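Table 4 source record.
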Amino acid sequence: MNKEQIIKAVETAVEERGCFLVEVTVSKDNDIEIVIEKEEGVVDWEDCAAIDKVMHGAFDQDVEDYALTVSSAGLDRPFKVLKQYQKALGTNVDVWMKGGKKVKGVLKAANENEIVVDDETIAFDVINSVRPIVDFK
């Protein structure tokens, strides 16, 4: 079982839950992590359980010998896919760029090539990571 087979097995169930795939990783020891994000709102336990059930239905754990974790992208994890940026439009983000520069501001736009934070356009090829700023005030 490989990453592509896993994506194919779960993508319909992910979409049916109103979610999208953020990341699928498979370690050399067959530890599988599926990270999902909700199109609107937040990922809940039932979303993760539904994807877990589909995985176990598609791949026999006794035969494949894998460990599975299904989780949400989390509030403090860097964005991985364009849909995360688009969902975060209008919110505050930290952008760490190659070379050490850091930009903090409101995410105003995002496309396949670049993001706009406040009035600064930043190409993805100069970005190390972008994280949401979580404010519990």
